[in-house]
Amino acid sequence: MLKLNFTFKPFNLNPCYTQAEKMYNWGWIDKHDLANDVAQGTLPASEYERITGDKYEVSEGTTK
């Protein structure tokens, strides 16, 4: 019988966070865009705070 062994290996998302930081620094996206990424779960709040220098706070203007 065929036996499968799956091992989860987490992805390294640091290149994605670095790209978001570059786009923010270039002015292609703003704090609101990054806050939406946090609300949608694609960017950790700690990365938002590192990139913008501001504390992340949930607001009504962000989408989920």
Summarize the structure.
With 64 residues, the protein is mainly α. It contains three helices and no strands. The longest helix has 13 residues, at 14-26.
Key terms for this structure?
64 residues, mainly alpha, 3 helices, XkdX family protein, XkdX
Secondary structure topology:
Blueprint: H1 14-26, H2 31-40, H3 45-52
Pfam family, one: Phage_XkdX
Organism: Lactobacillus gallinarum
Protein name: XkdX family protein
Q: What report would you give on this structure?
A:
The chain has 64 residues and is mainly alpha-helical. The protein has a domain at 23-58. The protein is built from three helices and no strands. The longest helix is centred in the N-terminal third of the chain and has 13 residues, at 14-26. The protein is elongated, with a radius of gyration of 16 Å. The mean pLDDT is 92.
How many H/I helices?
Answer: 3
Low-confidence stretches: none
Residue fraction in strands: under 5%
- Secondary-structure element string: HHH
Overall pLDDT level: 92
Number of strands: 0
Q: What's the shape? A: elongated
Major sheet, described briefly? Answer: none
What's the end-to-end separation, in Å? 45 Å
DSSP helix fraction: 40-55%
Gyration radius, to the nearest Å?
A: 16 Å
Give me the secondary-structure category. mainly alpha
